Amino acid sequence: MSRVYAQSPIVVPPPARPAAAHAEPGKLGLFSLTAIVIGSMVGSGVFNLPQNMAVGAGPLAILIGWAISGVGIFALALVYQGLALRKPELNSGPYAYAKAGFGPFVGFNSAWGYWISAWIGNVSYAVVMFSALSYFFPVFGEGNTWQAVLGASVVLWLIHALVLSGVRQAAFVNIVTTIAKIAPIVLFIAVVVVAFRLDVFTLDFTGLATPSIGSVIDQVRSTMLVTLWVFIGIEGASIVSGRAERRKDIGLATFAGFVTTLSIYALVSLLSLGILARPELAALKNPSMAGVLEHVVGPWGAILIAVALVVSVLGAFLAWTLLAAEVPYVASRDGTMPKVFGRENQHGAPSVSLWVTNGLVQLFLIVTLLANSTYLALLYIASTAILVPYILSGAYALKLALTGEAYAPNEGRVRNIISGGVATLYGTWLVYAAGPTYLLMAAMLYAPGIAIYVWARRENGEKLFAPIEIVLAAALLVAGLVAAWLIFTGTISPL
Length: 495
Fold this sequence. Notes:
By secondary structure, the protein is an all-alpha fold.
């Protein structure tokens, strides 16, 4: 969930497209781009927010957590908005910025980490979708029974077929599902605003009456990966920037998506604390929004949320399938990933990248069955994996602002220095919040990418590693091996 030496900016050639008599296929307007941003952010997380936040934090810490995340993600939104305009030749968002600013190996790891986060996130979507359906069909359990895995596999390959039919068609379906899933959330907010009780909200406002959740700082820390998870996708318009009709729409879509989702998330989590006390929220089964609404209006509220969650996850699953396939596809076109990932079908869809991505999703769905994996564990791994691309995007924007590259001679840079610095610090804080266990797990997933990097470099006849990159690769490999050993000995649990 989640993303050294300077070199000249890397120019990413626009994706090849078959000739068309009219509009170029695959081009997306402002509305489609905004729907991708919102659709990729608003997935399963919002429906689980009441319980996910309350389990480790009281109202005060949750307020502080949203304030920190709001500032951090706003800075990141400004970063992507600014970079889209200042570096129009760089497509595919986080990976391209990391490569331009810090070299090919760092750029590759940004692409690799983002890709990992994207498809692991899709596994979590599949799990939580069938967990929600267990409200109607108990056989699906927590989304990790064999019946749930079978159903998730069917959904996965139906979405796969839709994307193969063309990016533009998939984007249109994403608009429809985005509208369909926002409507029930707005209804939820309206209902709980009316039912909100201040005395319930202020009961144990600091959370300190429950020693097990720790100090306010500990509580704030517990909210960080959850808040990051629900904001993953803020860069969605940047990822598909090569398909945008107008470059300026990328920044507009990013900002519109940020404002919309922050408002929704903060209201859902905070208003719920005025309906049920924190311990009651923490004990709810997910999707916990269903439990909150059921408390206010009765059983039909739980049914509405369960249905809305399924629609929402389907939309997010689709949006993230688009994004996950796009990163290796575009990265292959400038030599960062092997050339095979750049192959298209007759509809202009990134076919090889899509097959590999969804093949890994299918594999991990089977792993969730064997390991009895939970949604929250997958959430944490995906969120941690995306930290590298996010930190590097902020650092690149900061670097441009400090050096003046891509700026007019007398152009002010203070605002961009602040936004780049805040975005970088926010990502660094999240590394601390993630803790060593999930960082080691992320390293274990990053380490195999070294072989793919070597494949791509040899394919293009380029030098494999600069001296500093050898050090980085060795450190990553060691961390991955340590993680594998700790999992093997049972010291840490993978899922």
